[in-house]
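User: Hey, my collaborator sent me this sequence without any context and asked if I could get a structure. I don't really work with proteins. Can you help?
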Amino acid sequence: MKIKLLLLSFLISFISLSPRAFAQAKHYDFKVDGIYYKVVDESKKTVIVTSEQKPSQANLWQAYAGVKPSGAVQITTFVSRPSSGSYQVIGIDDNAFKYCIDLESVSFPSGLSSIGKSAFLGCSKLKAIALPKDIKKINASTFQFCHKLESVKLPDGLEQIDGYAFLDCYDLKSIVLPESVKSIGKSVFSGCSALTEVKCFMDKPVSVQRGLFKNIDKSKVTLYVPKSSISKYKQAAVWKEFTNMKGFEKPYYDFKIDGIYYKVAQGNGGKLAIVTSEQDPLKHNGRAYSSDEMKPKGKIKLPRTVNYNDSDLKVIAIGKNAFLGCEGITSLIVPSEVTIIGAKAFAYNENLKTVMLPKGLEHIGSGAFNGCSSLSSIKLPDGLTSIGNYAFVRCSKLNSVEIPKTITSFGSGVFEECKALKELKCLLAEPPAINANVFHKLDKSKVTLYVPKASLSKYKQAPVWKEFGEIKSIEQESAVEELDRGEVRLYPNPAVHSIELNEGGLVRIYNLSAKLVLELAHYEANTRLDISSLPSGVYIIKLNDKVQRFIKQ
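Assistant: No problem. I've predicted the 3D structure and written it out in structure-token form, which is a compact way to encode the shape of the chain:
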């Protein structure tokens, strides 16, 4: 009797606790549109996509008891949980879509950073996958038995592919391994019998096991490797078994937007962008572009940021040779974040007439504007510290130059053969020590040098500087000093014939030597102001007490 009572008590206790126990054992936290989610961090509102239930040892394939996700699945960056608000989706759990045999396509959010083991194992109708940029590792068996998978796009930055990741993906025809890959596990592509092309961007062959391409006729697969690395691959284990191996030239640039080429650089705060050319001139007989059609043309206004792989990269430099020989460029505006203009960046741009350089610029490289024979004036911005050798050599129409007080280093021949130079403004309180050839083949007796009033006598006695025909004092409080305030709204900029201002009043326009060149006492807002009589160059417009720089083409 006691035994029966104890058994009855146990059963009652079990029945009363079982709903709670079941709730605790539930594999997911909530479900939206047929997709299951598990909360990772409630305080940060982050979740991962998961399966309805955790496969057991007895039924490893059974990640779902009910209806499985099917057709086209879109995983969004954020998902709303009823009564709890929005959560960010940061990953995909192990087995999340395991044996979802009717799943045909899946799109991932850009912020997704992890995909678990066997996440898509057995998705036999899945045809194409493009992994997001933050995926650094493909876990074991992630896409194993995806028999219909034809194409896979692996992200730049991927470092590791674990074992069996693409095992028996029978229809996979080609694979591109990015330069960042450091580790490839066991039998990753084993059984991918339709494979005809493998393209490796790694300069050094990754050490792999023999089973990597098991059950594949490697004589029917073309292995593409960097041209400079062919000999390494022909000696490396497994890779050398590909009898059809071809070299390719790795792109000189990482991406192209609006006709401008960029390289990705790594900075302390993340990835950055550097403007570059289409190809390396050292490898193509001095040509930075393969044809005239590939060269940037017209009015170039470089952006402050560019979007690459769903990330906004700050443009921080114009690399060497970036626009070498781009004779079709007529004007240039450089964004404020750029600190360096590399060697020969704009060399031989024969039709470049106007250039606006930012305050943040620190260095202009050797020959940066060499041969820009249409450039008429240049204001070197505050903050610039060094100018490389022959930076403006043979700028034959350059008539006006302003040198900021921040310059500490002048290269040789900076203004050599700038024979049209008429005005040179130097804001340094102390005459900088420069090589006599800075102004080589230039008749300094025909050039007026403007210097700070307190430094007039110093310049008249300083080597090289004293050779200028006329040395005049300037007031550093002039409108030129304020030209970067950006207070006047005008359109267009650059302009050819006329400009329009957003308000009326007294208008004065100055050249870079602070000389008044145009004045209008009663300008009416939003009407055309004729500037066609002004020579091409950079000017400062003062509207009442507001100041703005603009380019006249």
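In plain terms: Residues 128 and 172 are 9 Å apart (CA to CA). You can pass these tokens on to your collaborator as they are.
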